[in-house]
Amino acid sequence: MVVCRNSRVKPREVDVVIRMNIRYCGAIRSKSPQRRSPMSALTDVSPVHSDLDELLDDLVQSRSLAGRAFAAEMFFFARVADLVDRREAERAAREGRDAITHSTQLGMREVYAEIGAELYISEWQVARKVSLASTMLGSFYETLCEASCGQISGDHATLIADSGIVIDDGAVRMEYEAVALDMAREMTPAQLKSALDGLVGRLDPEGTQARVREAAQRRKVTVRTLEPGLVRVTADVPTVPGVGSVNRLRQAAVTLFDQNAAESEAAGDGDLEAAGQSVVDDRTVAQIMADMFCDLLLTAEFSGHGTTDEARDALSMIRPSVQVTIPAATVTGARVGGAVVDGFGPIDDQAAQQLAGNAPAWTRVFTDPCTGVPVCVDRYRPSKKQRRYLQARDQQCRFPGCRRRAQKCDIDHTVAHAEGGATCLCNLEHLCKRHHTVKHDTAWRVRQLSGGILIWTAPTGRSHPSRPPGTVRFDPIGLIDPDPHFRDGLAAHDPAPF
Q1: Which residues lie below 8 Å from residue 493, measured CB to CB, with a gap of 6+?
Q2: Are 180 and 199 in contact (CB under 8 A)?
Q3: Among 479, 390, 478, 490, which residue's Cα sits nearest to residue 450?
Q4: Which listed residue, of 201, 398, 406, 482, carries a Cα 20 to 30 Å from 378's Cα?
């Protein structure tokens, strides 16, 4: 077997390793006739159990196949670094600079952007896979081989690499890998993560303490969509205050839950006056915790811990602001649905009607229920009408796969203003700073059709459409590009938003 521990692997070496692992491990195959299941010794076997036994064999083999697919993906992503270096060298040669000492990273952005668009993953995920592949082939090759042979899953292999890469000493890292592989064969990923943290702490105690201090510098809060009407707010905070905050929240929720239970019991006995209310609060502890969490953040005064008096005064002036798109008919009480928090998904009609009232901390965008075109906009801090319309239409960066919110993006001319591009709705779109640079400084190209539809063309010539999420609807002509003069006419006659 070829063993390569270099972080940069040549394509030919990768191909050899792939072929050898495929031959060594084999593809998924039918069960061997010599195999004897533990159930074969039983005389009274339920048909269901017999079928389950066979299904378990198939599931185990499918897991093995998934491990091989993960290993193959790692080998392929290991080649990306070489492509990036070559592309950067091409750009440097054309621009007359040294590719190493004066790197612009535009070659990397160009390559990552195309891989992400083709695979429908973010560029962050591309970078993550490239980094993981480099780590696997450079420092945890035995782990990758175990995955390629189906002995462990890709999740197990990823955990081993992520947890162990922090160990600088090569000999200690090899000891770690050997123990970690033994653990991985008998543990779930969740069990393995906890065990690996303890293993790293024992093998590298000083490094672990340093990493704990460094980790605190990466504290942050993020939000992402889960399902219609629900988002996940994630806080990465130091362990002690984080656990303490959640425990305090849980204690408060349990106290309120017990109080509600007593009131519910009183109401069940018909003593509503003793319960103090006519409607019983039947929320679970988890639901109460979630409601308290939002109530605290939306209504509490910030302490300004560790800040100056001036900073505390500024913090007290902060008010939450969220943009909500509401079909105009919803405000009248008609059950048309479709109200969304821009960039995060649907909300219920009752909440939309409530927000449509006098709530200056929210931006409201009313849309025609038939066309989806914004017909009225108001916000706490007024801006130019074009910007308000574009923000309602685009909602996020318009590069394929990017979800950077429009409020944090630049408004770009599709056809550059210096090249005669007009400052009109049919020639403007939101781009985050990263993709604004990709558009202007790499071989990526874009053109805009009627209705704000963008057609991006990658350096390899592959096309990637981007429809504005604020006006997504069925289009009978699809993505077929009409005659340029006809397209220009369509764009010129798009209905004005104001």
Answers
A1: none
A2: yes
A3: 490
A4: 398
Q: State the amino acid at position 19 in one-letter form.
A: R
Interatomic CA distance for residues 106 and 84, integer angstroms: 9
In this structure, which amino acid lies at residue 229? G
- The model's confidence at residue 220, banded by pLDDT at 50, 70 and 90, is very high
Phi, psi of 176 (to 5 degrees): -60, -45
Give pLDDT, residue 200.
92
Domain limits of the chain? 11-29+48-216, 227-302, 322-492
Backbone angles phi, psi at 341, to 5 degrees: -85, 115
Contact between 164 and 173 (Cβ < 8 Å): yes
Angle, CA of 313, 233 and 312, to the nearest 5°: 10
Q: Residue 285 is which amino acid? A: V
d(CA 119, CA 98): 31
Q: Confidence band (pLDDT; 50, 70, 90) for 334?
A: low
322-327 and 362-367: which strand pairing?
parallel
Rounded to 10 degrees, the C-alpha dihedral 324/327/332/334 comes to: -120
Which tokens is 6 given? 């270099």
| Amino acid type, 106 | L
- Report the chain's mean pLDDT, rounded to a whole number: 76
Q: Could you tell me the CA-to-CA distances from 168 to 142, 251, 363 in Å, in that order?
A: 18, 42, 50
Helix-helix angle 123-139:154-164, to 10 degrees: 80
